[in-house]
Specification:
The chain is of the alpha/beta class. It has helices at 13-27, 68-82, 93-108, 123-126, 135-144, 153-163, 187-193, 217-228, 244-253, 290-297, 310-313, 328-339, 342-359, 362-387, and strands spanning 2-6, 31-36, 50-54, 87-91, 116-120, 147-150, 170-171, 203-208, 233-238, 260-264, 278-281, 302-305, 320-323. The mean pLDDT is 92.
């Protein structure tokens, strides 16, 4: 198939999933065309079967806010027509599903129907989409999509309840390449690789996010502060965003900044995650929890919150520990209990990897997308015949 993918190319779960999906599809022999304002950051060095089309946006002085959604719709239609795409797959409803709807209408006027699939990722439904400025148009674009998928049952039910969407929504979870996100098999090698992060005998805690307030990065620092008072440990923070500065200052004020590594944005997080003992994810809300899954695949259990789609991913007590948002002291106690009980931690590590392989490997999930594409395309063909 020839598939157009649109996503936000910056650091964030929806862009990561969309990019990894494109990479996996191309590896299976499909032709993938990314259409966005810049190249997704995880595409570096991987070009076989993958093409990138930049969306130029006019900076005409009349426009206080450049109309990216209109430029995107035009570029979608151009790429679809020139490269004879079979369908578009847009990630994050705002504004991508609206742009895809416009592109489909433009092509229909020229006698060609281009189906599009919208994947709902989280804040496009739980936050931005609920803004009254966007809710009506977001609802309309979702309703008019040829196919709609959601990354968790939680998000599916949230969309139905808050948007009154009447059409079916297929739950296709996020995924991870279990051959790329993998633990270090040899304990001695793992210890050697951890040498630049921690001294022998020190625990390594890790956090991975875009540092938005919903991720509660300050809670990560507070949890670590409680842990490091009772046992030797280091904290590794991967990512960047609006709360990074506040986290740095809090670490300094608590006198633990020399034990915290702020690594910023990293392309190859699969090489860092296996070095952690625990992943800290104290988010206010997660529609899925991709970082937790990436950790699980690397044998790293999560200390996470019982919110959104996380309980669909993390089995409390088996592959991680779940708490309520803001329960910093309890999360720290959970870390200490696991780090002080290595046999239990090792059992949890094994269970985390097994669960990732059993339910969330790309080899299991990506074929579901392909089958869904085929189903949507067939429905579009039948609709075209009916109209004719």
């Amino acid at each position: 198939m020839r598939i157009g993918i649109t996503c936000y190319p910056t650091y964030g779960g929806s862009g990561v999933v969309a990019t990894e999906l494109g990479i996996e599809l191309a590896a299976l022999g499909h032709e993938v065309h990314f259409i966005s304002y810049s190249q997704p950051f995880r595409l570096n060095g991987r070009s076989d079967g993958i093409f990138y089309h930049e969306v130029p946006v006019s900076n005409y002085p009349l426009f206080e806010f450049p109309p990216y959604d209109l430029a995107l719709a035009s570029r979608m239609a151009e790429v679809a027509e020139f490269y004879d795409l079979d369908l578009l797959h847009v990630h994050y409803a705002i504004p991508h599903s609206v742009s895809a709807l416009l592109a489909r209408q433009m092509l229909e006027a020229r006698g060609r129907r281009l189906p599009f699939v919208t994947t709902l990722h989280g804040t496009d439904i739980t936050l931005v989409g609920l803004d009254r400025s966007y809710l009506p148009i977001t609802r309309h674009a979702i309703q008019e999509s040829d196919g709609v998928t959601s990354i968790s049952n939680y998000l599916k039910e949230k969309t139905i309840a808050d948007f009154g969407v009447q059409r079916p929504i297929e739950v296709i979870t996020n995924f991870v390449n279990c051959d790329v996100y993998t633990p270090v098999a040899d304990d001695a090698e793992r210890a050697r690789m951890r040498g630049h992060l921690a001294a022998p005998g020190e625990a390594v805690l890790m956090h991975l996010s875009n540092f938005r307030p919903v991720k509660r990065v300050l809670d990560v620092v507070k949890i670590f502060a409680s842990v490091v008072r009772e046992l030797p440990a280091q904290l590794v923070l991967i990512g960047d965003g609006p709360d990074r500065s506040a986290a740095e200052w809090l670490a300094h004020d608590l006198g633990i900044h020399t034990r915290i590594h702020f690594l910023g944005k990293q392309e190859r997080v699969n090489e860092l995650l296996p070095l952690a003992d625990l992943l800290l994810m104290p988010s206010q809300l997660e529609s899925f929890g991709l970082a937790a899954l990436e950790g699980m695949a690397c044998k790293v259990p999560s200390i996470a919150t019982r919110v959104g789609g996380v309980p669909e991913l993390v089995d409390d007590g088996l592959t991680g520990l779940l708490f309520e948002p803001g329960e910093v002291d309890l999360m720290a106690r959970g870390c200490l209990e696991l780090l002080s009980d290595r046999p239990r931690l090792n059992r949890m590590r094994e269970a985390a990897r097994q669960e990732a392989r059993k339910r969330f490997c790309a080899s299991l999930v990506v074929p579901r997308y392909i089958r869904y594409y085929e189903e949507v395309s067939k429905r579009g063909e039948r609709a075209g015949l009916t109209q004719a």
